[in-house]
Design a protein that fits this description.
Layout: E1 7-9, H1 20-25, E2 29-36, E3 39-46, E4 52-57, E5 61-62, E6 82-87, E7 90-96, E8 103-106, E9 125-126, E10 136-145, E11 148-157, E12 160-169, E13 172-177, E14 182-188, E15 194-200, E16 211-218, E17 221-230, E18 236-241, E19 247-251, E20 258-262, E21 268-270, E22 291-292, E23 298-302, E24 309-314, E25 319-322, E26 329-330, E27 335-337, E28 340-346, E29 352-358, E30 363-371, E31 384-389, E32 395-401, E33 408-410, E34 416-420, H2 434-440, E35 445-450, H3 459-462, H4 472-486, E36 495-500, H5 502-513, E37 519-523, H6 529-534, H7 543-547, H8 555-561, E38 574-579, H9 587-600, E39 604-609, H10 619-637
Parallel strand pairs: 1-33, 34-35, 34-36, 36-37, 37-38, 38-39
Antiparallel strand pairs: 2-3, 3-4, 4-5, 6-7, 7-8, 8-9, 10-11, 11-12, 12-13, 14-15, 15-16, 16-17, 18-19, 19-20, 20-21, 22-23, 23-24, 24-25, 26-28, 27-28, 28-29, 29-30, 31-32, 32-35
Helix pairs in contact: 4-5
């Protein structure tokens, strides 16, 4: 067998079969699943349909016709915005419609009146009332309680934002609890006598400190509300009831999000102490990290960022059994039905799969649906975690995707694209990414930095950003880049940097405080910390208290940390992307950044998109932004990409 040698060709100009259009067509994503009767439903976000979120049935296919869109705007990030119900032996779908944020009901086999329309899905009817004039009411995190739906409601008025737990039914809507500013994870006990939920207040974020609360349910109301676990310095998440009114939940009281148990009297037990994260940053409501099985065992996910595993735990003796599976990262969206469990995962070779797990044989029984890669796997890198030591001896973690092509290799050291994830309380996994493959298959390596403050490495690492946002993240990015240059992974003069939202903030700081980067791309990035503190949405309005300091007491520090303050030092070309409907980072921030580039006469591009918010969902936007970004890098680094 004669192996064909790869040709040497300028990196960045390698011909790739992965066009931006092909990427966008394959850009659907799977997040949540739920068993409904004998059926299984899940949701998909489809860029090819304008970024619409659909609910899909294994038996019936798509359950929402256009223009219906199951997308809640609670916290502006949403989460699981639908619920499958069984009423009188018939399956029904409750969902929050993006256009008006009301809850609607519909059925897979006709109108709710029972008249078959000949369509695969009946026309939805509104369950929640229209809000009063001048108000917006939003709903999320729904559970079925008898003939009602209990969920979190978010009310926007001229005075501000309030939230409560509400009960919604055919007879109307009533408030169950309004004592907290934030709510998540309402869960009803198996006997229907107790409700558990997670609550927290400003200025905490849910990864800083939350409380696990429980109340007695009597005559449809909540009584004797008490706190079982958590406080302002302990993050509790994802409560689930056992068969005997025991509560299982995730807590980071030990320094890591681990599995805990509580009884109704508040007696706590640390079931498993492990230097591994079982939890997650609660950016979207409805996330489920635990599921209690019919035999009383617990299903969860644990492990390092690059090797997550589904695990089954016996709470009586804390014995664990990992599932043998080729997937290495899982979304916190576990669901169970009888002897079957369902999970959504990915790996370095698979984009996304919804798998069915046989709980009796403890093995993956089938792949129910998957997002398939649109090109041959020979073009994909093998992402893996790298560790870098800073000068002070602390480790920094990153995921490296080395440029890969079956026919070409770089004629010289390749360019490197540094990616800074958003959040900043989030992380990047060592999984296949079509967006990164768009660049790596053209000869540009990618490194995704899990800087201090990222999740997945314990609370101490997560807390490194306390008071240090704009410092630690920037320093960690620089440490990773300098290490990769020293190792010969990339050319020292061909490093570009991109990031969105909080990642965009770090991108801008990197460009004004160092000369390592030949160019940058900011996707709806934070340019002015003061504006973010005074002109953002309620969920994140006090986020900066912990990461910078209280505003306005620390106004001078806000000004100092803002990239906008230091734009006189900016010398690298910059491309800026912005959604005009963004409520998290308003367009004014990107527009101010553009204006500064114009005044400096700096090479730049500013691209704004109608109908896009914080994160791009439409195929046309995804195609446009990727092609513009790649061309921009080519102009700066001196290569002509094949688009």
């Amino acid at each position: 067998m004669i192996l064909k040698m790869k040709q040497k060709k300028q990196a960045g100009s390698w011909p790739s079969p992965l066009s931006a259009t092909l990427l966008a067509r394959a850009g659907s994503s799977i997040m949540w699943s739920q068993s409904v009767g004998h059926d299984l439903w899940w949701d998909e976000v489809r860029p090819s349909e304008g970024g619409r979120t659909l609910v899909v049935s294994r038996e019936h296919g798509d359950l929402l016709k256009a223009p219906w869109n199951a997308k809640s705007q609670v916290h502006e990030y949403g989460g699981i915005s639908w619920l499958g119900l069984m009423r009188n032996g018939k399956a029904m779908l409750a969902f929050v419609n993006k256009a008006d944020q009301r809850i609607y009901l519909t059925q897979p086999n006709g109108e709710l009146s029972g008249e078959l329309s000949g369509e695969p899905m009946g026309e939805p009817i509104a369950l929640t009332p229209e809000p009063p004039l001048g108000q917006s009411h939003r709903y999320i995190d729904m559970i079925a309680v008898d003939e009602e739906i209990w969920c979190v409601r978010e009310v926007h008025t001229a005075r501000g934002v309030e939230r409560d737990l509400v009960a919604v039914g055919q007879s109307g809507l009533r408030s169950l609890d309004s004592s907290s500013h934030f709510y998540a994870h309402p869960r009803l006990s198996a006997d229907g006598r107790h409700l558990a939920w997670i609550a927290w207040e400003h200025p905490q974020m849910p990864w800083d400190g939350t409380e696990l609360r429980v109340a007695d349910v009597h005559e449809g109301g909540l009584h004797n509300v008490r706190v079982l676990a958590g406080n302002t310095q302990t993050s509790c998440l994802s409560p689930e009831w056992g068969p005997h009114n025991e509560l299982y939940f995730i807590s980071d009281a030990s320094g890591w999000w681990n599995l805990w148990q509580a009884d109704l009297n508040g007696h706590l037990k640390h079931l498993l102490e492990e230097k591994s994260e079982w939890g997650f940053p609660l950016w979207q409501l409805g996330m489920r990290a635990l599921a209690v099985l019919s035999d009383g065992h617990i299903l969860s996910v644990h492990g390092p960022v690059d090797a997550r595993k589904i695990v089954r735990v016996n709470p009586k003796n804390s014995q664990m059994q990992d599932l043998i599976c080729n997937l290495t990262d899982f979304k916190p969206s576990l669901s169970v039905s009888g002897h079957k469990a369902y999970a959504v995962g990915a790996s370095a070779k698979e984009l996304s799969q919804l798998i069915e797990i046989d709980l009796l044989n403890w093995q993956v029984s089938k792949v129910l649906t998957s997002i398939d890669a649109p090109i041959d796997a020979a073009y994909f890198p093998e992402p893996h975690e790298v560790k870098v030591l800073r000068k002070d001896g602390r480790e920094v973690f990153a995921i490296l995707h080395v440029a890969q092509h079956p026919q070409f290799e770089p004629a010289e050291k390749p360019p490197l694209m540094v990616v800074v994830h958003g959040g900043p309380t989030a992380n990047s996994a060592a999984t296949l990414s079509m967006k990164y493959a768009y660049f790596t298959s053209r000869g540009i390596s990618v490194v995704d930095v899990n800087y201090g403050g990222s999740t997945g490495y314990g609370r101490r690492y997560r807390n490194l950003l306390r008071g240090q946002w704009g410092v630690v993240d920037f320093e960690d990015v620089v440490a990773v880049v300098e290490s990769l240059i020293a190792q010969g992974v990339c050319a020292h003069n061909k490093v570009v940097i991109r990031g969105g939202s909080a990642g965009g903030f770090t991108v801008l700081n990197a460009l004004v405080h160092s000369h390592l980067f030949a160019a940058g791309a900011s996707y709806y990035g934070v340019a002015d910390c003061t504006t973010l503190a005074t002109d953002t949405h309620d969920f994140e309005s006090r986020y900066l208290d912990s990461m910078i300091g209280a505003y306005p007491a620390e106004k001078a520090l806000y000004i100092e940390r803002s990239p906008m303050t230091h734009l006189s030092r900016l010398s690298s070309p910059l491309v800026i992307f912005q959604g005009l409907d963004d409520k998290v980072v308003p367009p004014s921030q990107s527009e101010a950044l553009r204006n500064a580039c114009v005044q400096k006469g700096l090479k730049h591009a500013y691209v704004a998109y109608e109908g896009e918010g914080h994160g791009f969902r439409q195929a046309s936007t995804i195609v446009s932004s990727l092609e513009i970004e790649l061309k921009f890098y080519g102009e700066v680094l001196g290569f002509v990409p094949e688009i």
